[in-house]
Design brief:
Helix content: over 70%
Order of helices and strands: HHHHHH
Number of domains: 1
Shape: globular
Radius of gyration: 14 Å
Number of helices: 6
Largest sheet: none
Structural class: mainly alpha
Number of strands: 0
């Protein structure tokens, strides 16, 4: 599990660096996170039927959010939310989104920016949740 989280951290680090410079998240990184989710599943860290249905509903809601947001949230950010939910579960993903959103809002207010790359803040929230859960 620690090794999977380390690989996830490296992928998240790349996402943060590229998104902060170019406002873009490569789809290949999403595929890598999905692969880590499958490996996690094969190792026996699986989800119940309810969690799987919750994941599907969560992904549908994120898709609706993307189409209704007039692309104020990029498609890479939405896909990052979806694949991260696949890796860590919907509840942990929602917690990571909340932490990332709050940190992004604080950053935007302090720096007085109207457009910020959201990926690094999502990554911060997700890593916060992963490290918090690693101790339990």
């Amino acid at each position: 599990m620690i090794l999977l989280n380390l690989f996830l951290f490296l992928i998240y680090l790349e996402i943060s660096i590229i998104d902060s410079k170019h406002y873009y998240i490569y789809t290949f990184n999403h595929y890598l996170i999905i692969l880590l989710g499958f490996i996690r599943y094969l190792l026996g860290i699986s989800y119940s039927t309810f969690e799987f249905i919750s994941l599907l509903v969560f992904c549908i809601l994120l898709g609706i959010l993307y189409y209704k947001s007039n692309e104020s949230i990029g498609s890479g950010d939405i896909k990052l939310m979806m694949v991260s939910a696949f890796y860590m579960g919907v509840q942990n993903s929602i917690n990571g989104i909340l932490i990332g959103s709050l940190s992004g809002i604080v950053f935007a207010l302090i720096c007085k920016k109207h457009k910020i790359p959201f990926g690094p803040f999502l990554v911060f929230g997700y890593m916060w949740v992963i490290f918090k859960n690693a101790g339990t």
